Amino acid sequence: MPPAPAGPASSVTPRTTPSTGPRPAPGVLVLLRHGQSTYNADDRFTGLLDVPLSDRGVAEARHAADLLAHAAEQHPELAPRRVVTSPLVRASGTAAIVAAALPGPPPLEVEWRLVERHYGAFTDTPREVVRREFGEEAYWRYRRSYAHRPPALGPDHPARAAVDDVLLRLPDAARTGLRADTESLADVVDRLRPFWATTATALARGETLLVVGHGNSLRALSVLVDGLAPEDVVDLNVPTGQPLVRRFVHRAGAEPPCDQAIAGSTDTAGIVPLVRGGTYLDADGAEHALADLQARGGT
How far apart are CA 254 and CA 292, in angstroms? Predict the structure, then answer.
């Protein structure tokens, strides 16, 4: 999705008061989808399965680390203070590779809400099999619609034990806040609202963060960052291993964020995206990756 132009400068002028002086600029949010996994390589529905990076995925993670480390040398505001990652190993492994290359290095924090979308009965199934069995129209509805859930993962499904093992390793809050049968993208957006609220508040205070997640958890996060409508997110894709930089400005007249801010949008934190959709550190590489992703059916 091409980024939309930023709004008028007058609508995002930082607030200044005699008592506090100019507010610090908001921090930068860097979003990174993990490197290619072994299941990405096999074109299978992965969902909550905990599969490793492929050799190409490790190389993509190292390339992302080099990109971000070099960018942080040129622009220190891009150096993350924290790295927040999904607990699934394809994401946490990517996060560890990238963090090791950054100044500090920054500490890693695990956030269960960033796990991939639960693909229900499609879990561990080749995409072509689903396409053939359900038909073209239903296949795309399950994959790309905002509110449509795949069929539920039943107790006798071959992937049930592996998914249950992942759920057991997540915090107690995850087992009450995460659907155990199947999810729509709208469900993923809902589970990410509290995470985005705390992230937006940290950004408003000037903290730069790197968030490492999955194709659909980052698509869902983009819904919250940019206030996307359901129809806007249908064609939104997230390539593996390509750092996406999201900059923000203070909304004119917005109050500083308070510790109790819990709403799931930038409105509470008083910041707005500078460029809708953000910018990739490697614009040419991301363009090629997105074209390849689109040719294979998207994220």
Answer: 41
* 247: CATH: 3.40.50.1240
- Quickly tell me which residue has 């795949």 as its tokens: 150
Q: By residue range, what is the domain housing residue 122?
A: 23-295
Instruction: Give the CB-side neighbour count of residue 206, counting CA atoms within 13 A.
Output: 7
114 lies in a domain? Answer: yes
Tell me: pLDDT of 146 over 70: yes
Instruction: Mark residue 170 as left, alpha or beta (left: phi above 0; alpha: psi -120 to 50; beta: remaining).
Output: beta
Helices marked H in the chain — which ranges? Answer: 38-42, 55-74, 89-100, 127-134, 136-144, 160-169, 172-177, 185-204, 215-226, 230-233, 266-269, 283-295
Of the residues 60, 111, 116, 183, only one is catalytic, namely 116
Pairwise CA distance, residues 268 & 248, whole Å: 14
- Domains of the chain: total: 1
Between CA 32 and CA 98 the distance in angstroms is 10
Global pTM? 0.88
Using CB atoms within 10 A of its CB, is residue 27 exposed (0-12), middle (13-18) or buried (19+)?
buried
Q: In the annotation, is 250 catalytic?
A: no
Any domain includes 108: yes
First and final C-alpha spacing in the chain: 13
Q: Which of 65-74, 77-86, 166-175, 266-275 has the lowest mean pLDDT?
A: 266-275
DSSP reduced 3-state for 29:
strand
